Amino acid sequence: MDLHYLTAHELGDLLQRREVSAVEVTEAIIDRIEAVDGRVQAYLTRTAEQAFEQAKAIDAARARGEKPGPLAGVPMALKDNLCTEGIRTTCASRMLAGWVPPYDATVVRRLKAAGAVMLGKLNMDEFAMGSSTENSGFFPTRNPWDLERVPGGSSGGSVAAVAAGEACYALGSDTGGSIRQPASFCGVVGMKPTYGRVSRYGLVAFASSLDQIGPITRDVTDCALVLGVIAGHDPSDSTSADLPVPDYRAALRPEIKGLKIGVPREYFGAGMEPEVETVVRRAIARLEEMGAVCEETSLPHTEYALPAYYLVAPAEASSNLARYDGVGYGLRVPGKDIIAMYMNTRSQGFGPEVKRRIMLGTYALSSGYYDAYYLKALKVRTLIRRDFEAAFAKYDLLATPTAPTVAFRLGEKAGDPLAMYLSDLCTIPINMAGLPALSLPCGFSQGLPVGLQLIGKAFDEATLLRVAYAFEQTTEYHRRRPELGVA
Amino acid sequence: MEYEAVIGLEVHVELKTNAKAFCGCTTAFGGEPNTHVCPVCLGLPGVLPVINRQVVEFGLKTALALNCQVAPFCKFDRKNYYYPDLPKNYQISQYDLPLARGGHLKITVDGEERVIGITRVHMEEDAGKLIHVDGPDGGYSLVDYNRTGVPLLEIVSEPDLRSPAEARAYMEKLRAILQYLDVSDCKMEEGSLRCDANVSVRPRGSQAFGTKTEVKNLNSFRSLQRALEYEIERQVAILEGGGRVEQATMAWDENRGVTYVMRTKEEAQDYRYFPDPDLVPLEIDAAWIERVRRELPELPDARCRRLIDDYGLPAYDAGVITSSRDLADYFDRVVALYPDAKTVSNWIMGDFLRLLNAGNLEPRQSPVPPEEMAALLQLQKEGTISGKIAKQVLEEMFATGKGARQVVQEKGLVQISDAAALAQIVEEVLAANPGVVEDYRNGKDKALGFLVGQVMKVTKGKANPGLVNRLLKERL
Ligand SMILES: [Zn+2]
Questions:
Q1: What CA–CA distance (Å, rounded) separates A43 from A5?
Q2: CA of B150 to the centre of ligand 1 (A)
Q3: How far apart are CA B214 and CA B197, in angstroms?
Q4: Between A and B, how many residue pairs show a Cβ–Cβ distance under 8 A?
Q5: 3-state DSSP of A357-408
Q6: How far is Cα B6 from Cα B10, in angstroms, rounded to an integer?
Q7: Which of A94, A364, B414, B473 has the least C-beta neighbours within 10 A?
Q8: Higher-confidence residue: B165 or B462?
């Protein structure tokens, strides 16, 4: 039995029945990391020692007759923009290469309380800016299905780790598709919950009004389990919603008869690979066979989402990243005066994509251009939100491709930021509207995974998970594993 | 040509809430550097601010006391600029949708009442403090973040002030109101009340505004007045000389007594304000506003009116006494025990304030509690001590913290009201000053005063002055 490729709920069952110990599971996955991470390069920081301690504590609790929750003792890992007390958190930036947070993110606290065993911190595009994980300040992560291809981004390390058996599940962050697009590229389940469903406290901010933490798992049941642990109101985040958290696992039923699903035509536009479109349409047809009512619809402002996003997100980023100035923590490159110190530090600490967005955002917010750019983008954002409101008056959820292509080759788009930005075309509007969405494996094209994106009403993650689960029950795509030359 | 000044003030008030604006850290002044801090007020990566409800409550109180309209919906914005004492390199403030707008407050200068408009009241957070250390390579700087995130209110006036004296009166009135509301310590020396002034001048009678300069960081009433006087003179001199005032941000050099240019218009900051996405907009419902309004304490103007109406105090006295809540409270407590309000007011405005100022004390820190002040006045009224002795006793009470009766007993200051004993002294004084007696008899009334003084001198001021007068007149 390959422990490293079991799902969290499968492992959880074995652990609860005490057929295997948390220490054994942890050992198995650490062995797997040793075996494959040299090629995948998902991890930035490994915390094997702490992981074994956490695993021992869970085993001890079980030995005492305690019944910790279903995720207790299951090894997982975190995108490196989630703060972990005492463990370095770099955002894959040289700016924070040596920074050790003095506190845990709320999601980390909740996972610890649920008995999670943390294996380490995962690679990403620097400060979550990028769609391929090639913008990491340290090294690129590779797609486990084809090591010459990108895993997607910015949560590329998180997704690759889950796909390659290097973590049972992971947390990522999604600002414009950073969980869903790589989940699509690597054939795993990735969810962006509703904005406000999961506390952002301790997530190093990229664009605060768009960022959301979400689970990356091997199947929908795991997604429901993990979301159940991390969701819920947090008094430390005033944008987190004070709403009850449903029992998501209990919401999983293979029954979707009569459900109304809208299929917005704008998400099948130019730039979409025909084979990806075929796979996605086939998946939608399957939902129909299962009893859902699928209907083409329109979200007319979709084409403006990408340009508006590339004003709002950099604007917020320019402000959020102003704190990296060499004064209090992180990198400091000396200079003859304070201004020179700021300039040296920021010039050497940030990579080109981060600098590009800071400049874009600074410009968009500057007086004289604010109305024409930032304010205009906010208005577009409202129009996009209204498009969705209108659609959800008719449909229970929407189905689209997650990304217009399968995983592209390393370096293929690295020199062309605009081409790179297009890979988030299908995911960005959902962040602009703050809605929940998930990507799940729905087939293959050129031997590479293709994702189906399901978009739900605000705070209705349960319906998303139910439909995804129903679909998953009728397919085997989520059980396929990449061949990495090791058993 | 005659010029008039046009002045508007931006006053920053540090609120004395229990916790900082967006985290739970203490707002206490002082403390070892960087001990009153947490990840939130240090702006560490990943942290989020959460507004402290008490900050809004204090802001509401102030806005209502200044007769403002409270916005039912307001939001927080980020004011972006780089400065090493600003941990996030942006300040959370309010820009286009402030907490409140459109109020006013009344001031009286040279007996003339003026109504000064309040443009807006908004909430924001304070920055930290830089400590510069000299060293071989030009030195270095240390940052103390204890003050970062301490809540501030910014109160912006309309350009309705016309002289440095009015500006000072406005600031004093504002401080009194804030003290009555108990929302701030208003200690200018600790920076909990500070102000920037916008100043321009124009030919008297003109309606158009001249080019203004902004004088930053005036942290005492005295520097406010002096800086404005200097800046107005400077601007007038430029105009008189046919020049043009340049729009600029100025600083005040207290030692040299001059303003100097910090930044010109060309170097103006672009703060790139935008709504803070980490903070949800604030909705303030009518019920909240009404509750705060109901709970507002009696404010200086109302209290002044009450002192005039209930005690018959002259307007001047009432104004002085109510200029500080502390002083007015003290007055009320003395009057409750010694109901001759005018006498109490005279004593408080005179010797009491003089002794407080000499000791650099607030009324609440007075070593003479209101009960002992009343006791002193009672002793005087009973004739146990004379008015002159009473002044001496008060000084002794201030110096030692002893009670009025104790001081009088210990120092043997009881008034001599024994006619027989005094008659003896009167005889001696008359015998010793035959010339003066002669003068008096020849119609020089002033001579009586001299003789009374001599008796007082012999009795060390303890003689009952009324009795001395009567005895002298009987004998002359
Ligand atoms: Zn704090």
A1: 17
A2: 9
A3: 6
A4: 98
A5: HHHHHHHHHCCCCCHHHHHHHHHHHHHHHHHHHHHHHHCCEEEEECCCCCCC
A6: 14
A7: B473
A8: B165
Query: Which of B76, B83, B145, B274 to probe by mutation at the A interface, max A CB count within 10 Å?
Result: B274
Phi, psi for residue B168 in degrees, rounded to 5 = -65, -40
- Residue A92 sits at the vertex; the CA angle it makes with A353 and A50, to the nearest 5 degrees, is 165
Answer yes or no: is A348 within a domain. Answer: no
Q: Under a CB-based contact definition with an 8 Å cutoff, are residues B143 and A327 in contact?
A: yes
Q: Which domain holds residue A245?
A: 3-256+436-479
- Whether the Cβ atoms of residue A99 and residue A83 lie closer than 8 Å to each other: no
Parallel, antiparallel or unpaired: strands A75-79 and A117-122: parallel
pLDDT attached to residue A487: 46
Q: Average pLDDT of B110-126?
A: 96
Read off the tokens for B406. 């104790």
SS3 B108: strand
User: Looking at domain B419-475, which of 1.10.10.410, 2.40.110.10, 3.40.50.150, 3.30.390.30 is its CATH number?
Assistant: 1.10.10.410
Sheet holding B90-93, edge to edge: B90-93, B77-80, B274-275
What pLDDT does residue A1 have?
Answer: 62
> B259 - beta bridge partners?
B252
Distances (CA, A) of B262 to A469, B45, B128, B233: 65, 32, 20, 19
- Measuring CA to CA, how many Å separate A395 from each of A261, A277, A389, A410, B333? 5, 21, 10, 38, 72
Q: Any idea where the domains of chain B sit in the sequence? A: 3-287, 298-411, 419-475
Any domain includes A142: yes
Name the residue among B363, B302, B354 with its Cα closest to residue B331. Answer: B363
A317 lies in some domain: no
A423 is catalytic: no
Count the domains in chain A: 1
* Across B4-24, average pLDDT: 97
pLDDT in tens, B174-210: 999 999 999 999 988 888 999 999 999 999 999 999 9
Interface residue B277 vs chain A (CB under 8 A): yes
Task: Report residues of chain A scoring pLDDT below 50.
Answer: 487
Residue B250, beta-bridge partner list: B215, B261
CB neighbour list of residue A340: distance below 8 Å, 6 or more residues apart: none
Write down the catalytic residue from A154, A155, A158, A199: A154
- The predicted pLDDT at position B209 comes to 93
DSSP string, A301-350: THHHHHHHHHHHHHHHHHHHGGG-SSSSSS-----SSHHHHHHHHHHHHS
DSSP character at residue A220: H
Residues in chain B: 476
The span from the CA of B246 to the CA of A85, in Å, is: 53
Q: What 3-state DSSP class applies to B15?
A: coil
Locate B17 and state its tokens.
């809430």
CA contacts within 13 A on the Cβ side of B325: 18
CB contact under 8 Å between A367 and B272, yes or no, is yes
Neighbour-count burial of A86, counting CB atoms closer than 10 A to its CB (0-12 exposed, 13-18 middle, 19+ buried):
exposed
ipTM of the complex in this document: 0.96
Tell me, rounded to whole angstroms, the distance of Cα B94 from its chain centroid: 27
In whole numbers, what is the pLDDT of chain B averaged over residues?
92
Q: Is residue A356 part of a domain?
A: no
The CATH number of whichever domain residue A41 belongs to comes to: 3.90.1300.10
Residue A37 has which token pair?
């991470």
Which residue type does B200 have? S
**Could you tell me which chain B residue has the CA closest to the CA of A362?**
B272
Give the pLDDT confidence of B297-322 residue by residue, as tens digits: 999 999 999 999 999 999 999 999 99
Whether A159 and A186 have beta carbons less than 8 Å apart is answered as: yes
Q: Give the minimum alpha-carbon distance from B234 to chain A in angstroms, rounded to a whole number.
A: 31
What CA dihedral angle connects B414, B415, B418 and B420, to 10 degrees? 110
